[in-house]
Amino acid sequence: MKVKNIDQKWLPYVYSCLLIVAGLLFIVLPDFFLRLFVIIPGIAAVAYGIFVLLPLKNMEDSNLKRVTLIKGCISITFGLLAVIGPMAVAAAAIKIVAYIFAVSLIVMAVLGFYSTSMETSESDNRKKEIFENLALLLIAVILFLISPKSLGYAIIRILGICAIAAGLVWIVFEVLSKKNEIVVADEAVVVKTEEEDK
Q1: What is d(CA 17, CA 51) in angstroms, rounded to the nearest whole number?
Q2: CB 49 within 8 A of CB 79
Q3: 135-170 pLDDT, tens per residue?
Q4: Angle at the Cα of 44 (from 38 to 49), degrees rounded to 5?
Q5: pTM (2 d.p.)
Q6: Which string of b and e fits 158-196 if b means at least 16 CB within 10 Å?
Q7: Which listed residue, of 71, 95, 155, 193, carries a Cα 20 to 30 Å from 178's Cα?
Q8: Angle at 75 between CA 64 and CA 104, to 5 degrees
């Protein structure tokens, strides 16, 4: 039994629908995808560690052998931790990134307050800068208070919303472009018919 090939004109709609479905799955199953995003790099790290250790027997340089052994063992260890305890690894990674980002926001806010304190005029621009610096501090506090798991779920769901939006925009773009092609084709037919009548 032969399977007919999908018409090329329908492929953008198929891809956009797949994108929307993936976005919905991201929103509905954030726990699964959070684990997946940790497990896949973990498997890759284990595979890389094994690949690094394979030529270990043929190495003659003791220093190079030692460095290669440490490198491979570290890669395998972190990879196994990611595969065995993906949520713990994800929580730790998200927490570290969130804290680094929060500290950078605090530094930016402090520098912003310092720069606004140097200004003498009470302009609207100065008030805007003060508001922006307060907003940066608020975001930093939220990042310190929010749990890594909740933050991870939020990131996954935001990715899902972006995927759905991208799929819908793609569909709308394809529909509008097809309508424009039809209009251009109709105008060409009308012009050709008028020329033939002449």
Answers
A1: 38
A2: yes
A3: 888 988 888 888 888 888 888 999 999 999 999 998
A4: 125
A5: 0.64
A6: ebbeebbeebeebbeebeeeeeeeeeeeeeeeeeeeeee
A7: 193
A8: 110
